[in-house]
Design a protein that fits this description.
This protein is α+β, with helices and mostly antiparallel strands. The chain is built from 2 helices and 11 strands, in the order αβββββββββββα. The chain has helices spanning 2-16, 121-179, and strands at residues 39-44, 52-55, 58-63, 66-69, 74-75, 81-82, 87-89, 95-97, 103-104, 110-111, 116-118. The strands form 2 sheets. A 7-stranded antiparallel β-sheet has the order 1-11-10-9-2-3-4, with no helix packed on it. A hairpin with a 5-residue loop joins strand 7 and strand 8 (95-97).
């Protein structure tokens, strides 16, 4: 429940900023679950100098009216650092990876590939990374078990082969003794 209350309060506060009128508590606020990026309908992306996007797998920066491939890490006005590989690190140390078509403007606001603002990009990615890490952990454990079972099967097969070889060698030895 806290995951919905805090973002809802923040959205209400953000919505009231910059307007001359005061928002009342009676106005509805819609809050999406934290595990999905929240798209803010009122704000859409407008291209400007210094913006960064991931296009065709390459980090691009908007300079002089054109998108160019980033040749070095980019530091945005809010301290966010975007590497040439698309890894994004906030000023407070949060890490995410830019997805194809996503854009970050020069002040650190995220926009999806349709140009709509994403208000909780850091939280949604953190949740996604956590889910991915858990899935990798589960699959690694399953792989470990499969390897363990496979090794046991190999051990059993080698033992069986060694036993058969020992028996055959004994038979040959017995046959040779009889012929002497």
């Amino acid at each position: 429940m806290k995951n919905l209350i805090v973002p809802g309060f923040m959205l209400a506060m953000l919505a009231s900023c910059g307007e001359s009128g005061v928002k009342t508590a009676a106005e509805p606020v819609t809050v999406a679950p934290v595990d999905e990026p929240t798209v803010v309908a009122e704000e859409t992306y407008t291209i400007s100098e210094g913006d960064v996007t991931l296009k065709d797998g390459k980090v691009m920066v908007y300079k002089g009216g054109v998108w160019t491939v980033a040749e070095k890490d980019i530091v945005l006005d809010d301290g966010t650092v975007i590497s040439v590989t698309g890894d994004v690190k906030s000023a407070d140390g949060k890490m995410i990876t830019l997805k194809e078509g996503e854009t970050i403007n020069k002040v650190g606001r995220f926009f999806d590939k349709t140009g709509k603002a994403i208000s909780n990009a850091w939280d949604a990615t953190k949740e996604g990374v956590g889910n991915a890490a858990e899935a990798v952990k589960d699959k690694a454990a399953q792989a470990g078990e499969a390897i363990k079972e496979g090794a046991k099967d190999v051990k059993d097969a080698v033992k069986e082969g060694a036993d058969k070889t020992r028996e055959k060698a004994k038979e040959i030895g017995d046959d040779l003794r009889k012929k002497e």
